[in-house]
Amino acid sequence: MNNKSDYEDIRHNLIKFMSLFHRLFRPTFKRETDGEYKCNKNQIRAIMIIGRSDKISPSVLCEYMDMEKGSITTLIDSMEKMGLVFREDDPKDKRKIWIQLTNEGKEYFIKQEEKFISQIEELFSTIPEKEVDEFKQSLKTIVTILDKIKTS
């Protein structure tokens, strides 16, 4: 692709995509008002990532969240104080630390997953099934291409 207008189209669609994505999906990551934890959006994102990974190193969490190491440490500390995560030394490598969800953290993760899935179901409820399938495939393609770009 050498045509400048192709890159302009990509730029335009990326800006539009980001705007739509944030408008439609941001409510899932807003500060929780459940009265118990009041997690901010980064805490919610971190719990979603850790919950899907079972356990994760702080450096991998940094990469997934696109945050600096010091910020991740502060984030983990705050979630640890809330009782949502705990640190565990790697028995095979004493230099390595794993971050895992506590039982409370797992319950919170499940609640957030259910909330997110419910929101997705609601958003897509008016779209024909064929278009939802096309969106799902297109999203997989986008993620695959972005992963390639990131690692090149």
Automatic annotation (TrEMBL):
SMART domains with a match to the protein in the record: HTH_MARR (SM00347)
PROSITE patterns xref list: HTH_MARR_2
Gene Ontology molecular-function annotations: DNA binding; DNA-binding transcription factor activity
Keywords in alphabetical order: DNA-binding, Transcription, Transcription regulation
Keyword Electron transport: no
Protein name, as recorded: MarR family transcriptional regulator
One Pfam assignment: MarR_2
Taxonomic superkingdom: Bacteria
Gene3D superfamilies for this protein: Winged helix-like DNA-binding domain superfamily/Winged helix DNA-binding domain (1.10.10.10)
Residues covered by the HTH marR-type domain: 11-144
Statement: the UniProt record of this protein carries the keyword DNA-binding: yes
